[in-house]
Amino acid sequence: MDSALIPKGAKRCPFPVFATGIAVVGAVLLWGVYAMGLCWLKGLNQTNMNDYYGFALWIWADLAVIAIGGGAFFTGLLKYVFGIDELKNIINLAVVIGFICYSSALLILAIDIGQPLRGWFIFWHANVHSMLTEVAFCLSLYFSVLTIEFIPLILENRQIDKVPFFHNLSHNMHSVMAVFAATGAFLSCFHQGSLGGVAGVLYGRPFAYREGLLVWPWTFFLFTWSAAAYGPCFTLTVTKLFEGITRKKLVKDNVVHILAKISGWMITTYIIAKIIDTIYWAFVTAPDMGFSLIDFYSNNSFYGIWILFAEIVLGGIVPAVILTVKKYRENNKLLLVAILLGVFGVCLNRWVMVLQVMAVPVMSFDTWALYVPSWQEIATTILPVAYGVILISLAYRYLPVFPQEQELYDAK
Amino acid sequence: MTQDNHGKAYKFGMVIDLDKCTGCGSCMVACMSENNVPFKEDETNKKDSITWMKVFKLTNGKPFPDTDICYMPRPCMHCGGKGDHGHSPCVSVCPATATDYGYDTGIVSQIYTRCFGCRYCMGACPYHARYFNWWDPKWPDGMEEYLSPSVSPRMRGVVEKCSFCYHRYQAARDRAYHEERRDNIEEGEYQTACTQACPAGAITFGDLNNPEHEVSKLVKPDTHQCGKPRNPKAFRLLERLQTNPKVYYISEREWVRKAGDNYRDGEWEKSK
Q: Measured between alpha carbons, how far is B230 from B234 in angstroms, rounded to an integer?
């Protein structure tokens, strides 16, 4: 039915099967859209946030998707700036994931603010001292860059490519893509970093506050580094997910292994920095404010010291070891464990730096502020996931996302 | 510092004597009435009720008969921020400059029509002094007639907080200008609603920069240490965070002063 749109020679499931899958995910998407509409029309009273707990579940999702979408800028940097050519076979996927993640992040921000129609004030009345201002500028600009990076792939659709103008446009855009990749990496350093800065500058919140360099707290650098380190884990996770669902090899092992190796070394350096940061914070920064480390992990029913262990050991040291040791990362099962733990680790870090920050009491007579999200919050948090599944499925079906797909199929 | 008062900057602040406070809540009521603070039909959930002035109840944690209670009124602290340079925790993070530090008054303002409701300032404030309008403000029929014309009601989706009754400062300033004494607002000319409403006289308000004002006499702020009180019975909430609030508390009771900040084991004894 839609075979004329499918890349030449590529095998795809029958259209009714595909359409049914999209319809199922589409229903989830509509559920999310309904919840989003409630938040916009009736206000944020639809959530379970309150004046003690002003950041919702979706803000964690916002930071998490930006972190795991970091594979786009980092893979682009490696391919176009550092010239690691093998990565051309996975860069398309990284770009599509990045586009989905960043568009989702912008959508979440639009739902999160109390006066969505005033969202543009962040640009118009910008406060240069605010990390959130930096986030808004760099995020919007980088999303534009990602759109530019995504366009050539769309133009490679079999039917669009037949139009000479689009064919040439795509070719010419490819040839200047290094400029956009470098711009994207530059912008990403700042928006990933400023997202880290959002928590790190809160000197009224000892759990979040970090000292730093000039105007940037250490979390600024840790967030950038962790997005570059863990982003490729998510790119590889999605690759494995596609290979599992389609039961086809889509990317050659050498490409997977080189990205896994780079990710492994990045995680190693990141987790060393993170451990140093944690030790300094626990023994110097927090005590200066009157807190012991255990104050942040006790007297409540959820946040125990286990979360610090899970983030640093399970989500940091374990994937770092697996991905840096050749025989481990070339073992498919261990590789899968490592990239999944990597995604888990970075998402947990973002959780801690947003939601736990709000939960920890600061005044001596205060209590922990734990909250349970409302269904509207859960639905709007799932909304970007459903949107992402639909967009990436469409991209896989109609665009040459995996350049090695045909070659690997023929060799089978 | 601006030219408005010939280069002389005010630093308005508040001193609350916790040993006088009975926890009656008059300050809260006066504040809500004065500032058109909206309320909910059902106020059961206090965590999303707007209370610019909130009275916390503290206990010394001891069993009867040694139990002791302290009521702690908490307005916005109007923090001067680190180094008292005006970079308050909330002001420095607001992405749209919707909250600002008045260098001529020391008051942290909130521009309701510019706030777009990101709530970053709420996350930054360790005192929970900032409140979000989760609902449209609604008053019972006819009550609109009783709203103060000097204070604009706020719309759904924006943050609000105590302004030290800034409209009263504006009125006092206008009067001083009219009477051609533009840099001289008398102590009694500008007082907040909560100060005037307190039946126990626990709240004192005035210019911390003016040694003649009662607030200065009570706490003796040390200008070399960002206003830290020299009165040993006075303290500021969370002094160690260096937020440099302009609200001071006084208590003869040691456990109350200790509750004003966080101390690790043995630190309080050393700090005395």
A: 8
Task: Determine contact, residues B74/B131, Cβ cutoff 8 Å.
Answer: no
Whole-angstrom distance, CA of residue B241 vs CA of residue A205: 8
ipTM over 0.90: yes
DSSP track, A66-126: HHHTTHHHHHHIIIIIS--GGGHHHHHHHHHHHHHHHHHHHHHHHHHSS-GGGTTHHHHT-
Within 8 A by CB and 6+ apart from A308, the residues are: A278, A297, A352
Within-domain flag for A176 = yes
Q: Does B123 touch chain A (CB under 8 A)?
A: yes
B7 pLDDT more than 60: no
- Across the range B134-152, mean pLDDT stands at 93
Candidates A60, A115, A299, partner chain B, best to mutate (most B CBs within 10 A)? A115
State pLDDT tens for residues A189-232: 888 999 999 999 999 999 999 999 988 999 999 999 999 999 99
> Which are the contacts of B240, defined by CB distance < 8 A and separation ≥ 6?
A288, A289, A290, B261, B262
- The residue ranges of DSSP E strands in chain B, in sequence order, are 12-17, 54-59, 69-74, 99-101, 108-110, 131-132, 159-160, 203-207, 221-222, 228-229, 234-235, 247-250
Task: Kindly give the parts of chain A with pLDDT less than 70.
Answer: none
Cβ-Cβ contacts under 8 Å, B49 against chain A: 51
Confidence category of residue B182, pLDDT binned at 50, 70, 90 = confident
B125 touches chain A (CB under 8 A): yes
Residue A155: which domain range? 3-406
Domain with residue A129: its CATH number is: 1.20.1630.10
User: B43 to chain A nearest CA, in Å?
Assistant: 13
pTM of the model: 0.94
If one looks up domain B3-38+49-266 in CATH, what number appears? 3.30.70.20
Rounded to a whole number of angstroms, the distance from the CA of A71 to the nearest CA of chain B is 27
How many independent structural domains does chain A possess? 1
Shortest distance between the Cα of B78 and any Cα of chain A, in A, equals 13
